[in-house]
Amino acid sequence: MIQFTIRGPKVKGKVYKAFYYHSEDQNGNKYIQVSSTEYGRLYFPEEIREQFKVENDTDTMTDYFDKDNFRVYETHPLFQKVAAAIEEIKEYCKRREEKKNAEKNLPKVSRCKSTRAFKREYISKVRFPESGKIVYLDRFLPKQEAIKAAQAILMVPEYANFKVVVC
User: Which residues of the chain, if any, have pLDDT below 70?
Assistant: First the structure.
């Protein structure tokens, strides 16, 4: 049985990496193209080759290498499964984008080398994207501790107007 997942078609528990896209042939018939991510012939298994006409124009004599691909037309019984996989990909991308946007304004903590001469140790650098402020702490701390320490430092009135604070 063939399943269509985000990563590609799945047959007998093995996923064959591929990508999907909508297209239209010269006659105006709409289809979904499924192309493997790997070069070479016979990438897709027999189960897929029995259901679909797999194309591959690889010519090793001229060093032209192509990837296996096949078309799933609207009239094919598995078209709805492939279309569902594309919708799943769109949902996945949407969720990933929402998560990325939600984390955009969170403080970022990174490890960097000390700016002091002859100091070969790592320190914490905390960036606050909303205010554009950066705080360097004189030692490397775990993420949450570094954020709390940097927020406490920025609460001190004498550091409130600075863009970069080194402690």
Answer: 40-41, 60-63, 115-120, 160-163, 165-167
Distance CA 123, CA 125 (A): 7
Write down the domain spans for the chain. 2-102, 108-166
Residue 68 makes CB contacts below 8 A (sequence gap 6+) with 35, 36, 38, 40, 41, 42, 43, 44, 54, 55, 56
Token digits of residue 135 = 């705080």
Structure tokens at 9: 């078609």
Q: What is the pLDDT of residues 24-51, one digit of tens each?
A: 999 999 999 999 888 766 788 999 999 9
Task: Name residue 20's amino acid.
Answer: Y
